[in-house]
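pinging the channel bc i need a second pair of eyes. not urgent but kinda urgent?? the chain im working w is below, pasted from the shared doc
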Amino acid sequence: LLVDAAEGPMPQTKFVVKKALQLGHRPIVVVNKIDKPGANPSRVKNELLNHDLVAEDLGGDVQVVEVSAKQKLNLDKLLEAILLQAEMSDLKANPNRAALGTVIESHLDPGQGVIANILVNAGVFSRGDAVFCGSACGKIRTMKDSFGKNVSDATSSMPVQITGLDEVPEGGQIIQVFPTLEAAREKTQ
């Protein structure tokens, strides 16, 4: 949950908190813009009490991380908080389920064909997998990680760049793995 350090919780904060609590989630509160004139993180924590969120330093169970995205202050603390929350929640991806991803962006390269940057949502994408996305399908010919290194597999939450689709998919479309290229092609019809 992102809150401006100078403005405090906004009307939509109550809605987001209510939904998170209904789902049994304790959000991490990120108090941003602590470098801004008028910033008052203590006031923000006190106002969060009105939304049933009690910061750890006030005796509660909600992590509150004060950051400045502009000056890149305490971003390491935010990452630690996210990792701690994930560990406490025992979040795990199921590598044995059908692989799904989201196309972030894609384009046609004259030398390599269709290049799609995807984020793996679930399962494992592997080089050679038959995939379907919108009206595009194909087999993954190459797959590179976010550092440009060739990889043979991509697991949940991993961004990768793939080649092998027969059309350029739109950003935001879901890409999924099928057992065979024929099964993927049937989906396009």
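so Residues 3 and 10 are 8 Å apart (CA to CA). and The mean pLDDT is 90. — does that match what u expected or am i reading it wrong
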